[in-house]
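Weekly puzzle thread! Below is a chain. First person to post its structure in token form gets bragging rights.
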Amino acid sequence: MKIDAQTRRRILGGAVFVTGALLAGAGLGGTALAESAFRARPRRDEHPETPEEAWAELRAGNRRWESGIANHPHQGMDRRSAVARKQEPYAVVVSCIDSRVPPEVVFDTGLGDLLVVRTAAQTIDPLVTGAVEYGPAELDVPLIVVLGHQRCGAVTATAEALREGRELPGRLRDIASALRPAYERSGGNVDEMIRINTVDVAARLKADRLLAPRIAKQRLKVVGAHYSLDTGKVTRVV
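Winning reply:
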């Protein structure tokens, strides 16, 4: 297709205008320009229906959190009223009780978005597993995320106790017992223990007799992930 001279001048003029605008924005700092564009993008309003959509929504929220431009969605009075009589969460997050890893903050979500089950080092037992099952079985939640994290205190305490041959006090010994397989397979390396434990918990949930049929029908996915305290980034490990 041939372009006449007048059309060509209009196209080039528009390109110069756009380039100038971008450079002017860059004068404010490349980061400021990127953040402005990110903030301007509206958050997706539709409810995630599939495991892939749910994971994409969580990843997008975590990118906002990691970048320091969280939207804090679904946290106002309107949302409170909207979910008061009915909830439709799109993910179950099994995470540690660590005060630095609140899933709603890490994934930049709000009221009614997540079902959160928190235990020391995201360990599970029959009671905890029942709580996890509730989301997919009763609310048709399509995604479960097992979220381990950097410098987990429960894992560190367990590794130290097992290395020194001493018992932790009270019911903490049950946590150490749950983490012992990861300790033995990791050689006592805390970072590797955290990863192995996350993968193991995800595997146990995948094999759960109530969850496995939904996974086979692709109505549910179980994801293992790791959260960095230093950067705020969530990385999928399985």
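Puzzle host: Confirmed. Bonus trivia for everyone else. Residues 5-44 have pLDDT under 50 and may be disordered.
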